Amino acid sequence: MLIEGFSTALTPINLLYALAGVTLGTLVGVLPGIGPAMTVALLLPITFNVPPASAFIMFAGIYYGGMYGGSTTSILLNTPGESSSMITALEGNKMAKRGRAAQALATAAIGSFIAGTIATGLLVVAAPLVVDFAISFGPADYFALAVLAFTAVSSVLSRSVVRGLASLGVGLFIGLIGIDMQTGQTRLTLGIEQLYDGIDVVIVAVGLFALGEALYVASRLRHGTPDIIPVGRAWMGRSDWSRSWRPWLRGTAFGFPFGALPGGGAEIPTFLSYATEKRLAKGVAKEEYGKGAIEGVAGPEAANNASAAGTLVPLLTLGLPVSATAAIMLAAFQQYGLQPGPQLFDNNPALVWGMIASLFIGNTMLLILNLPLAPVWAKVLSIPRPYLYAGIVFFAALGVYALQNSWVDLIVLYVLGMLGYAMRRFGLPVAPAVIGMILGPMAEVQLRRALAISTGDVSVLVTSPIAAVLLGLAALALAIPFIRAYTARRARRTSAGEMPADKEPAGRP
């Protein structure tokens, strides 16, 4: 099947789409404050009239290109496009300030290539196994799976569970808009006929992610050209290679399994990779940590890109997005009337395996593009900020209007853009809202189906062993942040109670 996928991906037109995807993804991903999720959301309307197989080959390129581009911004500007790039910025920018920007960019690019290639190979092995398991899922199991996605993403991708659940509620509300397919009743449409079919997932993705993020970042940046560290062609010396190859492999080992877990994301493996490399550092590496150690760039970047391939396992096999970018990819599938899951592998094998094969091709293209063209990508950063964010707003509006030539879509886009800005402004994560909007209708349909089969008996939701385990994991995902907060508070009280008498604060009885 993978060989057949290569026969699809290696056609001249699909190679062109792959090249366009990795170039556009890197170009937009390099821009400050724009991560892979926003990159895919912004470019989603462009592929509206492209054949599905070619579109997803292009999306795969955009996805990986955005991951590559984010490291350039982190290293040269100390401006991570997303939270998983924070560790890269931590050591990478210090390397750049020491005159080692070329080495930092090179280890990020090569590490991303190696991690992405290994992780894509693991995706090839893991996906069919998960599909065989998912075939046994019933309506109650799918509902429990959606609940697990809701709770995991809400608790992991936000600073507090309450804010994550609030964001999820916003997404579920948006998902209810339109005609109820089972009763024929209109819901939350305000009598506007254009809303009877609901709000297109592309509009939600572009509005909340691209437009909201652009407004938020633009409101916090001063006008003018940022200070960019000059960089030549990316290269690595012999000592850099010897110090980087082990962190690349360890980062891959961290990234892929965490990426495949609901709510695992890329943040945890990048932090684990950084902590592991810091603990294992010896000699020169130990002295350089905190001042620009190459291991602190190599490991987290490998973990970041390996987790990107890991997120495709639950997305393609279960239709379960476990990250913000995966949620946008799911919106892309729904744009073409496709539902990821076990049936996708049976009904559209050329599309799925062509997309997976294109990941290998796109990875190679990105390595070829990023090493010699690092100075070119660095010059992109000199675009004046007012032009940059005005351009994002313009192209977002143009792409959304082109979907149905509807002025209502434009109004909805700007309303969602302001909502996305407000959510960022008050600390509500955007990813749970998008996942709630996409998975909410599916969860509702599966819940109704399960209750109809059991003639209203609610116990059907926990009688299946799979559903019971998934709901238990969902409850655990909600409880873990509270348990952590409680143990941390108790530890602080214990340490305060054990404070020696001569060290007690003045005035304490």
Automatic annotation (TrEMBL):
The keyword Transmembrane applies. Pfam families: TctA (PF01970). Keywords: Membrane, Transmembrane, Transmembrane helix. The chain crosses the membrane at residues 12-34, 104-127, 133-153, 160-179, 199-218, 312-333, 353-374, 386-404, 460-483. Residues 15-435 form the DUF112 domain. The keyword NAD does not apply. It comes from the Bacteria. This is Putative tricarboxylic transport membrane protein. It comes from Sinosporangium album. The lineage of its organism: Bacteria, Bacillati, Actinomycetota, Actinomycetes, Streptosporangiales.
